[in-house]
Amino acid sequence: MSVLIAGSLALDTIETPEARVEDAVGGSASFAMVAASFFSPVQLVGVVGEDFPQAHLDYFRSRGIDLQGLQRLPGKTFRWSGKYLPGWSERVTLCTELNVSELYRPQVPPGFRRPDVVFLANDHPRLQRQVLDQVEKAGLVICDTMNLWINTAREELLALLPRVDLLMLNDEEARLFTGETFLLKAGRQILAQAGPRAVIIKKGEHGAFLIGPDQIFLAPAFPLEKFKDPTGAGDTFAGALAGFLARAGGLTGMNLRRAMIYGAVLASFTVADFSFARLRSLTAPEIDQRFQRLREMVAFD
Ligand code: AMP
């Protein structure tokens, strides 16, 4: 069992209503692969620049992540900066610098080309396609995206989606992508027109909404009174889901529902601190305990 994860590795500058951090290690693939590594062996395809700290690569390796598909190119690492508005009401992107990811061409090592699950974490749809083109056979293909790519690379995204089993996006992005206000309608439109087998719409602290041809499932977020930084919650959710599905052997039975609950649990740990600070000390019993508590919170019969 294995999960192949491709996406961004980044240095993030984040302002919250309470603090500011510079050059925190982030990126869609980083959060996703650390989360997935709690469930399944992970193979990474990605790129960093000369300035990406070696200590973080050592941390990824210490989680058993196979970095053969990681390129280190001359130049600066992808950088993103974002700001949470007062009251955490909204996040705005202040700056996205593609840097080395602009000229990068993903290389999927021969040993990575037949994974159980491929997770195309948020990145330019061109890069996501280039990864998928090199995969010979995959049990399941999951893809995440964001408003930037819906706005600037819509055609490339649309061309990718018939090759995707499960699309993830957040509520605002689902509305932007479809022009529909109501999420169920937006999800159904994506299934009918764009081609994935199911859609998961992430709704931040309100949980996640699965829309499939013959099922709907609502996964709550794990309720928290306090968090430090929500950055990476969506990537963590998706990575844990992908890792769990690789371990569970695909989409049969209740697997996707369980995977969404594990996604919610892992995301609840990511937001407790900046970057990977909380995930670094996370243990399997802590994951199981929150999984159990969420199960109790939604039981009514
Ligand atoms: P999330 O909070 O789950 O939406 O993810 C935030 C992470 O996504 C940050 O660590 C960023 O470095 C990364 N990110 C932001 N914008 C992009 C982008 N356009 N492409 C790839 N990754 C991005």
Question: Can you describe this structure?
Answer:
The protein has 301 residues and is of the alpha/beta class. It is built from 11 helices and 13 strands. The chain has helices at 28-36, 54-62, 125-134, 147-152, 154-160, 171-178, 183-193, 233-248, 255-270, 277-281, 284-298, and strands at residues 3-6, 10-15, 20-26, 42-48, 66-72, 78-84, 91-97, 117-120, 140-144, 166-170, 198-202, 208-211, 216-219. Helix 1 (28-36) packs parallel to helix 8, helix 6 (171-178) packs across helix 7 (183-193) and helix 8 (233-248) packs antiparallel against helix 9 (255-270). Bound molecules: adenosine monophosphate. Adenosine monophosphate is lined by residues 8, 10, 12, 26-28, 80, 96, 122-123, 146, 148, 231-235.
Describe the structure concisely for a colleague.
This protein has 301 residues and is an alpha/beta fold. The chain has helices spanning 28-36, 54-62, 125-134, 147-152, 154-160, 171-178, 183-193, 233-248, 255-270, 277-281, 284-298; strands at residues 3-6, 10-15, 20-26, 42-48, 66-72, 78-84, 91-97, 117-120, 140-144, 166-170, 198-202, 208-211, 216-219. The chain binds adenosine monophosphate (AMP).
Question: Which characteristics define this entry?
Answer:
301 residues; alpha/beta; nine-stranded mixed β-sheet; four-stranded mixed β-sheet; binds adenosine monophosphate
